[in-house]
Specification:
single chain; alpha+beta; Outer Surface Protein A, domain 3; Rossmann fold; six-stranded antiparallel sheet; 11 helices; 25% helix; binds S-adenosylmethionine
Length: 408
């Protein structure tokens, strides 16, 4: 099973009837990026839009006819009108602009989607692991904070484990479901649901236990380090126990099967095929590559025969001590056999409680695991001979991981 990624490459939407009345969805956050576009977060999903979207989001802060907004924003320019129309369609098909009656209802996108939570609850190693850790660690006087409560599973478990008080924090619409789970389990007297991002949250008291399952396929890209560092500063007692208390990031050199690589990368062979088929020189496509921060997500069941060497430790973070939220490390290894398509796949080991480790390393393969492996093709040395020494540069900063590989 594969933890879903936030889809950013949605197909192009069709246009919307001009008489339609739309309004901005409830949970929309905008990020300004360095590029000529903005990032829009809605219900835990991310999409990109041109800067013009800022004007449109402002215009749709209350219900408005699409035609009226387009006329006001376009200002008579035909090209701008087309861009605005495409942008409105894009935002409507991604749940950023919704019908007024939908605004009040619980959405079905991003972290609200039932399927995401089903995947995680079906991952018994993960869910039982976190629940077992809570039962081991939580004591009757504890105040627990569960950051990213989702369906409320861990907050409910903490309450049933005897915590005096549980703060369940959830920024997406799935919070509405968590509220009902707390009621169904008779724990509303002890569990307070906070419907916001932990990083803007204030609590009436500091918590003595933090639990957060914000480990991504690219283990750090859900910003667990930033979440924990912020909580330690503002929301936890100095001696608070943290679940997970530590996380290790491992790199595994793998031989990527050609068929897999060719689903994501314009290889020479692929491009030659296009040239032959269409009679067009497509050689520039070979330079159009994934960047070293764009991993391919792989189902862990598919990769058993791919490794070229034992995993190497790239980073080890002890959450109970002060730690840096950006990481820059280097590790070397020797590949056991030749590879035409070298890549580095990430895995993690998270310590949930003393002696209880959740791992996605191939040696600990769990068929119920929903975690995928993030794979970074080694574009600087795709082909390596048996016995070659390679050096992996692993960097993480504010939700973005980059992995570079060189022979050395
Ligand atoms: C991977 S899910 C885990 C859900 C649940 N704890 C479980 O174990 O099934 C992470 C959840 O955290 C929420 N989330 C992520 N970062 C958050 C933050 N800083 N504050 C509040 N919620 C957050 C997401 O919306 C998502 O519902």
């Amino acid at each position: 099973m594969v933890r879903p990624m936030s889809p950013t490459d949605e197909p192009r939407p069709s246009s919307i009837p001009p008489e339609t009345v739309l309004v901005r969805a409830r949970e929309v956050r905008v990020r300004l990026t360095d590029e000529d576009e903005i990032g829009i977060d809605v219900g835990g999903e991310q999409l990109h839009a041109p800067r013009l979207a800022l004007l449109l989001l402002d215009a749709f802060s209350s219900p408005r006819r699409v035609a009226d907004v387009l006329a006001a924003v376009a200002g008579g320019g035909a090209e701008r009108a087309l861009e605005a129309e495409a942008c409105v369609s894009h935002m409507a098909s991604n749940g950023v602009l919704v019908l007024p009656e939908e605004r009040a209802a619980l959405g079905t996108r991003g972290w609200v989607r039932p399927s995401i939570h089903m995947l995680m609850l079906d991952d018994r190693g993960r869910t039982n692991g976190f629940c077992h850790a809570l039962r081991t660690i939580v004591k009757p006087e504890d105040v627990v904070i569960d950051i990213g409560t989702g369906t409320g599973v861990l907050a409910t478990c903490a309450a049933l484990a005897g915590a005096r008080k549980v703060y369940a924090v959830e920024s997406s619409g799935i919070a509405e479901v968590a509220a009902r789970v707390f009621a169904a389990n008779g724990v509303t007297d002890r569990v307070s649901l906070m419907r916001e991002r932990s990083t803007s949250l204030t609590l009436p008291e500091r918590a003595s236990v933090l639990v957060t399952e914000t480990i991504g396929n690219d283990p750090l890209d859900e910003q667990m380090l930033e979440i924990v560092a912020d909580a330690k500063k503002r929301l936890l007692t100095p001696d608070a126990r943290i679940i997970p208390s530590a996380i290790e990031i491992w790199g595994i050199a793998v031989d990527i099967p050609r068929t897999v690589l060719e689903r994501h990368v314009f290889t020479k062979r692929k491009v030659e095929g296009y040239c032959k088929e269409y009679g067009i020189d497509f050689s520039p496509l070979e330079e159009h590559r994934l960047s070293c921060s764009e991993p391919i997500m792989l189902d862990s069941r598919d990769v058993a025969t791919w490794p070229l060497a034992e995993p190497v430790l790239l980073a080890s973070i002890d959450m109970t001590k002060p730690f840096d939220t950006s990481i820059s490390t280097r590790a070397g290894l020797q590949v056991s056999r030749e590879s035409k398509h070298l890549g580095i796949m990430l895995a993690f080991r998270a310590t949930l409680a003393p002696g209880l480790v959740l791992s996605t390393l191939p040696a600990d393969f769990d068929p119920t695991s929903h975690w995928a492996h993030a794979l970074f093709p080694a574009f600087d040395c795709l082909a390596v001979a048996a016995g070659a020494h390679i050096v992996i540069d692993y960097n993480y900063d504010r939700g973005t991981t980059t992995v570079r590989v060189n022979e050395g």
